[in-house]
Amino acid sequence: MLNKKQASKVSPLVANKEAWDSLEEYLQEQIRMTLRALVAAQSELEVFRLQGKITSLEQIKGLKADYDAAIKANM
Predict the structure, then answer these.
(1) Residue ranges per domain, the chain?
(2) Residues 7-26 pLDDT 10s
């Protein structure tokens, strides 16, 4: 979960519905492409790298939920 300072830094992005929706759509497409690459991965190293990429993309995608929880916790 984000702390108050982190939440204030991401506020302009997650509070702008149009910007957030566009970013979320982009992230979802990147996750789909990475999953396709993961299925075709040839080496263990490539699998680990792609798994890490998916984890990072999912973390970014969960940023709004983390922001909302941080704001709610600081009320």
Answers:
(1) 4-73
(2) 999 999 999 999 999 999 99
